[in-house]
Amino acid sequence: MASFTPKLENELPFAQDQHRVTNPLQSGKEAEEQPLEKKDKRCLLIFDDRALGRECLARTLVDHGLRMEVAAFGSIDEWQETKGSYPDVGAVLLNIGARKVGDVMADISKLASQFNPAPVVVLSDSDDIAQILQVLESGAQGYIPASVGVDVCIEAIALAMAGGVFVPGSSLLAARHLIEAEKRETSPLAGMFTLRQAEVVEALRRGKANKIIGYELNLRESTVKVHVRNIMKKMKATNRTEVACKLNELFSGDARGS
Known about the structure:
Layout: H1 5-11, H2 13-16, E1 20-21, H3 28-32, E2 43-47, H4 51-63, E3 69-73, H5 76-82, E4 89-97, H6 105-114, E5 120-124, H7 129-137, E6 143-145, H8 150-161, H9 169-186, H10 195-205, H11 210-217, H12 221-235, H13 240-257
Parallel strand pairs: 2-3, 2-4, 4-5, 5-6
Antiparallel strand pairs: 1-3
Helix pairs in contact: 10-12, 11-12, 12-13
């Protein structure tokens, strides 16, 4: 039976150079004839110690329209051996998978230093905000969670190459909620009032009438009065004016101590 091996070696893009990926839909001549503004002469360098993972990622990025040559390696040492046959590095994509950033911080810093000014972007299975901050502090210029699509990944790389910093929107929202939670915990009213009472307290500090408070908080005026009475008891105040004065003193004292 005839062997198919020679034919496959000629057709498969990784058979001749397992590190290099170009657009399979273009012949070499077509690629050379692309307008310069549409073809970046730099290459994207992918580092991933998993051979199948890095080759699949490289192929996917090219197939989805990344207008750069892609070179995928398992380590910097592998890259050093063959770097002379590739264009200048435009960006570095480090895929850390499920590894904790603490285990790769030194690698990120080394890449950021060695390939400067080309940006380093980290691809990770996690979208934990604490990990993202550690990655950026280590010198990376972008953080891509594996939950995003390929097109977003390409845009993130382009943003980093343009001087921007990409972080997932979901993580920014999580950070916002975390900051708001910390503010609530450090507030001088923390633990003193229920959430609804705290909302009424803020309105009282601003001198708003019960009817306005009810309208803004979607409460009956009678319900607002109940909240006000309970607040007065907790503040040991005899009227609304005294409540407002004590609250202002409480908050001003907190501001001086911060």
